[in-house]
Amino acid sequence: MAEQDPLPPATARDALVRELERVTRANDERRDNPILAGALERVAQWQSRRLRMTYADLAADPRYTAAIQFFQNDLYGGADFSRRDADLTRVVPVMVKVLPEGVIATTALAIELNALSQEFDRVLLTRLPRADGYFTVAEYCKAYRRTGNYPMRRRQIKLIGDIGAALDRYVRKPFVRTALTMMRQPAKLAGMSALQDFLERGFGAFRDMNGAAQFLATIDERETQIMDAIVDGSYDPFPDPLNFRLSRPTGS
Q1: 182-214: per-residue pLDDT in tens?
Q2: Cβ proximity of 53 and 242 under 8 Å
């Protein structure tokens, strides 16, 4: 059976533009509201520590080190993606001429994941006992349940797998790597280095893995288990991330 792109080619550009507009609104709200931005940053840092704790074993495996860093820092963690998103908004007309439709569609999924994660964090803040973004694991679980919208929580996890599977597929296609290389100098000259770095980190991480099926299955399993535990009423589905001692992954 022939491989299918994440979105039909006819809708890839539209999907990318739609998700960029969505995430731009979120980025603008953060920029215009320093109090909100600070609270969201604390939530993001807390969740980033949780991810590092949950996937410390993958980060220590040289095969997965670059991929888990990309997952945590570029897709699902607490990094500020506003510059990358601004780069994307400017470069859409160039991307659709240079990159395959499937890569455009996969980029749209990455932006959707970012937008969805930000939206969940905003709602979570309104359910926490304090608006300053400081909370315990039990308070997080209670706020998580109060936000509801579990189908979209499941989509959030599914997006990670869809994006990863697409990257794993594209790194095996020489013409995609060639297209990215061709974009490197124009991107630098146009001030779009954040976007170019994002794309190259993703492709590089999945190329080095030499097969992402086990990596993606592990993420899906652990994130689903945590979500299901919280939904079922758990107040301690994982240890307190603030007590986790962060360390640099092997090989970094």
Answers
A1: 777 766 666 667 667 888 888 888 888 889 999
A2: no
